[in-house]
Amino acid sequence: MATTTTMPAAAETATAAKPTTFAAALNTAMSDAMEREASVCVFGEDVGTLGGVFRITDGLTQRFGKGRCFDTPLAESGIAGMAMGMAMNGMRPVIEMQFDAFAYPALEQIFSHVAKTANRSRGRVRLPMVIRIPYGGGVGGVEHHCDSSEAYYAHTPGLKIYTPATVTDAYLMLREAIDSPDPVVFFEPKKLYWTKESVDLSALRTQYESAAENSSAPAAGVGAEGGAVVVREGTDVSFISYGPSVSTALKAAAAAAEDGISAEVLDLRSIVPFDDAALAATVAKTGRAIVIAEAQGFVSVASEIVARIQERSFHSLSSPVKRVTGFDIPYPSPKLEEHHLPSVDRILDALDELQWED
Amino acid sequence: MTSDTAPGATEQGSHIRDTSSSFGITPEQYMLPAAQQIRMLAPDGRLIPEEEQGTSPGHEYPIPEDDALLAAYEALVVGRRVNDQNYALVRQGRLAVYPSSHGQEACQVGAALALGDADWMFPTYRDTVATISRGVDPLEVMVSFRGDWHCGYDPLQYKISAMSTPLTTQLLHAVGVAHAAKLRGEDTVVLAMCGDGATSEGDFHEALNFAAVFEVPVVFFVQNNGYAISVPLSHQTAAPSLAHKAIGYGMAGEQVDGNDMVAVLATLRRAVDLARKNSMPLLLEAITYRMQAHTNADDDSRYRESDEVEQWKQRDPLQRMRTFLTDRGVLDENAETRISGKAEEVAAALRLAMTTEPAMDPLEIFDHVYSAPTAQLREQRAQLADELARNQEG
User: Fold this and answer.
1) Confidence class for position A11, pLDDT limits 50, 70, 90
2) Best exposed site among A23, A357, B232, B293 by fewest CB in 10 Å?
3) Beta-carbon separation of A121 and B371 below 8 A
4) Which domain holds residue B69?
5) What domain count does chain B have?
């Protein structure tokens, strides 16, 4: 479980805090890492002159030069494969897949090589690289722009899967991903890109770099154990969530409170490594759980979470564990997506079904 | 630190223009392969007159010095012995599988001898002899074919990536290694190897295109042995040759007789030199032949005539080189005895090692997945440890 130093609240007390977007936090995380370490380089489609279709890499080429942040030919397998070769040879590439569903041409590279090279070589070749993927819906995107593809990657041993849900975590977790000796698939909820929190990024930089230098513990709290954090305390039920669904879970918890139900919200932050200890702790505390995720539910990360609760926390449970996920359909068109995505109402309906009379 | 090294630091295509004009030919004449494949030794091993070797301005290949040729011959003999020894070990059940390069040894040896120590090689599963020729202990290579672990040697120590089983995926890693070196100002050349069937894969296209766009020194070396398991080249491409594909990417392509050790070494050496000097990729297609089946699980009589195999025996790279070097006075009986003695030593070491069961720790399967094992892997490791302990007690 993550330490309190990485809690989002830490930054809000800093004196120089100001409204900061999720996008700016990611951008600053990359430029800070590039400033600190010459081997960090950023590339992908449109990330150079344009600064990325979401402007996440804005200004990096201008600041660090075309050798450190550059556009590639339009070929995702090429981007991932070249990044792997660069990581083999002393670099720390941070690559951008333009959209979730456009990353699929890179899957062979990621599954067959990026994920397996350390194991294949008996740990002799480590690949410190980050694959950034904007993911999820809720932004009115058309087909191929809204997939929640995390389960494909999470099913592949050798990859770490991070997904921040706050501006603070966007900064800290991307810094830790770049510093990780293992390949990290970094899922950025695109609906959060322009959300703001009052954050002092320079204080976060100091906090991160000081933790990275002075402590053997992972500086953003993920490391090998996973970094789940309780983002709202509660006693009656646990909402388990990650990435874009955390904000939905928090809204549902606020609504439940009006009905007199105290919901705890757990933000997983990393899907791999998976924080079993944090999951067991919250379920032991509340005895009830609802897993909330945008991805279609069948054979999903949500399925895995339910299975782990059943295996490890069965005797803590007062009712079956529920899931509120996307339906098992291809992602719907923009005008229909609201019916597909987990909503506060759907979470509250699930809450009603948790055998409260027992 | 800022860096403008790549890409776009130089005008697009300027390397090709400068190189071709230095030869007094057009960029097209430089990028298209010579009218006939480069060949220096006739099938019977005699040296072909220079004007009949297929060379032309911009496509000229000096014959390597005698020392290098003798070293190549030695590696050929050892390589052939390794191929045949491993083939036998598969039949005895000592190896799980062995994709033999019997017949393709000139390509294998050339790949290794054309590179410098700081250069990198990206081999496929059929390139065992290339890795051995570059200095990897044969026993380390055989770790994978014996079924002990996926890769037995240290890729960073030898600057040879793990032999790639998926087709052409490794060509992109080769481009990345070269790109990283270029960004640091190093003149590392990377040799990226694949077969004819692999040129149909999408990553072949992406790798050649990336290499040309980023102007990195990668030599793409295609061993065209005529078949992708059973499917002949005519089902892979309608191009005049695989070497012709180069011009579509803005790089030079050349075709060489892959069973001619002299021509293979000469063309590879020059490709490596040009790549290093001008920081640009090249494509070399070697025409060769796989004399044995794809693997022990394959039956090549289902897709090719024995007559065809017999015809290729007449162009055996080892016999050709032996005749040539003997005629040239470089190879005498003493050298032949020394070299065959060395090959027998390597084969004997392989036999001994492969008939000894290695001590293996099953728990190692959890140890390298991540730099530090996750809680889940620690649990699973403990589970297997417990199973092993109980099995031992039982």
Assistant:
1) very low
2) A357
3) no
4) 14-360
5) 2
Shortest distance, CA A42 to any CA of chain B (angstroms): 12
With pLDDT > 70 as the criterion, what percentage of chain A qualifies? 96
Whether residues A253 and A277 fall in one domain: yes
Phi-psi region at A196: left, alpha or beta (left = phi > 0; alpha = psi -120 to 50): beta
Is residue A145 flagged as an active site residue? yes
Q: How many residues does chain A have?
A: 358
Mean pLDDT of B318-332: 97
Where does a domain end: A179, A214, A249?
A214
pLDDT of residue B355: 85
* pLDDT value at A264 more than 50: yes
Mean pLDDT of chain B: 94
Cα(B258)–Cα(B289) distance, integer angstroms: 8
Mean pLDDT of B362-382: 97
* Tokens describing residue A312: 């490890």
Give B159-218 pLDDT, tens digit per residue: 999 998 999 999 999 999 999 999 999 999 999 999 999 999 999 999 999 999 999 999
Alpha helix ranges (H) inside B60-147: 66-91, 105-113, 128-133, 138-146
DSSP letter for A331, please.
P
* Region of poorest pLDDT, from A5-19, A112-126, A209-223, B343-357: A5-19
pLDDT in tens, B280-324: 999 999 999 998 888 888 889 899 988 999 999 999 999 999 999
A192 and A250 fall within a common domain: no
- Is A64 close to B2, i.e. CB distance below 8 A? yes
Distance from C-alpha of A247 to C-alpha of B368, rounded to nearest angstrom = 36
Where a domain ends, among A189, A214, A239?
Answer: A214
Question: How near does any CA of chain B get to the CA of A35, in Å?
Answer: 7
Check whether residue B257 and residue B382 sit in a common domain.
no
Residue A184 sits in the same domain as residue A262: no
**Once rounded to an integer, what is the mean pLDDT over residues A156-171?**
98
Do residue B7 and residue A86 have CB atoms under 8 angstroms apart?
no
> Which pLDDT score is estimated for A184?
98
Contacts of A112 in chain B (CB under 8 A): 166, 169
CA distance B165 to chain A (A): 10
Do A272 and A154 contact (CB within 8 A), yes or no? yes
Any idea what the CATH number is for the domain that residue A269 is in? 3.40.50.920
Q: Let me know if A265 is exposed, middle or buried by CB neighbors in 10 A (0-12, 13-18, 19+).
A: buried
β-pair type (B190-195, B218-224): parallel
pTM: 0.95
Active-site option among A145, A155, A315, A340: A145
Residue A14 has pLDDT above 60, yes or no: no
Closest in B176, B210, B368 to A122, CB measured: B368
Spatial CA neighbour of A300 closest among A183, A153, A192: A153
B167 within some domain: yes
Q: Which domain holds residue A276?
A: 229-352
Q: How far apart are CA B34 and CA A314, in angstroms?
A: 73
Is B185 in CB contact (< 8 Å) with chain A? no
B4 — pLDDT class (breaks 50, 70, 90): low
CB B195 within 8 A of CB B222: yes
